[in-house]
Protein 1
Amino acid sequence: MTEIRQPQGQLLLRTLAMPADTNPNGDIFGGWIMSQMDIAGGLLAKEIARGRICTVSVDKMTFHSPVGVGDAVCVHGHCSRIGTSSMVIHLEVWAKPMLKQEKDRYCVTEGTFTYVAINESGRPRPIPAQA
Ligand SMILES: CC(C)(COP(=O)(O)OP(=O)(O)OC[C@H]1O[C@@H](n2cnc3c(N)ncnc32)[C@H](O)[C@@H]1OP(=O)(O)O)[C@@H](O)C(=O)NCCC(=O)NCCS
């Protein structure tokens, strides 16, 4: 029996793919998808760091399938490592065609984003102890 893949981590962001976000092929532009991932991961990183953070690196970005205009786009994620000032967050983007209700959601993109907790001068600061 084939195991059906499910999103890993918590739902961090849900939005709609709009016509203004397309590339010349008419699919959704990969840069827009990456920016949604960065926003979603940044939300989780801010919660963990309880304050200001910045993105320091993006790794292992893989685009599995195109996203269509009108698809519901969800970003799920979980933190896999907390260092002194850095957080490694794995993010997955799942799309669900809104006009074809019979079609299941599918994973379109995934990647690993690293964020750093920073102080008011933009320098790394220690992440507070987690509850
Ligand atoms: C993030 C930044 C503050 C780190 O400064 P830095 O002088 O490299 O700091 P450090 O060497 O002390 O590293 C701090 C932490 O970042 C991690 N780090 C630094 N560069 C990294 C990289 N390329 N990839 C992954 N982690 C990195 C270090 O491992 C360290 O983690 P730890 O504290 O958990 O051990 C600095 O590189 C910066 O301001 N970058 C620009 C950020 C930015 O503008 N982002 C885009 C908009 S949000």
Protein 2
Amino acid sequence: MDKQAVFAQVANLEERIGELYGELGSLKKKIMELLEENSKLQIENENLRNRLERQTHKQGDVSVPLGEGFDALARLYHEGFHVCNVHYGSMRTEGDCLFCLSFLHKS
Ligand SMILES: [Zn+2]
């Protein structure tokens, strides 16, 4: 057995694993960005839908009941994303967010 060759092979493998690890890291970052972008768009969409709903119900000054939009935001929060203005659309990494909770409770 050529020990030199085996060592070279292991070193080569180590290098490739290092590269793969780096690639995995950047993919993970990209997925994170996409998820956050997606949640931001969802929030935006719900806000626009709510505004539209409120506008169509404007006549008579009836207070508009909380619609589907609100449910969607609550769901998004429970999926682990911020829906508050402070951290807007980013992933919740530290448990509950007081800004989100107060936003969801007053909406
Ligand atoms: Zn929040």
Protein 3
Amino acid sequence: MSKSKPFPAIHGGCFCGSTRYRLETAPLFNHACHCQDCNKHTGSVFACFTTIETEFITSFGKTPPKITTTVRPNGLVRHLATCGTCGTRLWASGDRSTVIADINTGTLDLPELMEPDVHEYIESKISWVLLPEGTKTCKGPFDYTKWWPKSSLKRLEAAIQRAQERKKLQVKVAQAESLDVEDEKEADKTPTAQTPDEKDEVAEDDEEFERRYLETEKALQERLEQLSLRLKVHEKVQGDDLRPGVVQAAKEPASESPSAEPKEVPAATVSEK
Ligand SMILES: [Zn+2]
Ligand SMILES: [Zn+2]
């Protein structure tokens, strides 16, 4: 793996800091949604999501994410990962497939880097939410087969394939075990789609790992270039702010402004930071 630049780890976590996660590779896509469901779900006026293969989210920290599974009337299974302590919504999988997850972009440590590639349900956007000129939008849900870069579609295909192989393996193991112990608890073996820890069961070999990196490298580099450009702008602004005496003046108005987002009092959880 020495020949390809490793993707810098992207970290994120919940409000109280006890549930942390890391993205093992670059996201597949970023999108914003202005539908009313997302507004309700997130408690905001529009939602931003960073999509990645579920198996490439590694959780760490004091508390593992709490996974809540629901089965929708149409049979789709959805897994929602939240912090078991503070309740922050971290990611959900199953909207399209449990193989991929939509991370709540705001839970990333540097959400600044994940500008949405498209804003969907633009027809229900709240009028005082203003988008930068040139923002890509669409009415209703965006069609990922048209909007995702080819490299991401390839990655999705590969992820689906890996999931199918894991399922087959699980079925085989279950069959083998049922021969030994007929009344083995079947529930434990039911392949209920991905959960973040499922990847522990199948180790990816080096060759496959390398192949995956090479496949996505171009997309990663493009994204990285964008990110570093944005970071440079960011650093410059921050550098200016750090001049003695300027820091207070520059920062306070932004954080103190009585904007639409009332500050929640973190009560006991704040001491954990
Ligand atoms: Zn938390
Ligand atoms: Zn939505």
Protein 4
Amino acid sequence: MAEKITIEELLARNKTVMASHKPEPTFQFLAENQIAVAKTLVVACADPRSDPSYILGLNFGEAGILRNVGGQVKPLLNDILALDNLITFKQVMVIHHTDCGSTHFTNEQVRGVLTQRDPRAAAEMEVESVDFGAVSDLPNSVVRDIKFLKESKLVREELKENIKGYLYDIEKGSLEEISG
Ligand SMILES: [Zn+2]
């Protein structure tokens, strides 16, 4: 793990990237030239060990990817609805993974830390009722997330039929389909 990387070094790398960068097409260009955008949405954990591009061997632009703590759909619902409004996805893959960081803390711990840091701000944020994404029940977290999307009245019915959930094993590199 590259724990000593600095922002300065990353910015220097960007200069290298920029040197050979080719302009990306705009939405207008895609529409005018009837070029299809990626119709697959992948929801996954922000953990570098759970990178969908690597896990699924994605080529550039083959899928839209949303990542957060645990790859949990509930806090991403607004994003999913907004993106689907723009893109009209055909399918969704929700991927959680073994040894997820979200299984190594509890919501109570996060609430405690925030309350200690600034009790007033924590109270204003109503941290006692905030779900910080702690997970205690892999792979049932996948079942819960699929259920959440399928029960949402705002997710398109056509899309609901093509939502699949998986548990990624970080040791084996395998994906196990988790059905509800
Ligand atoms: Zn994770």
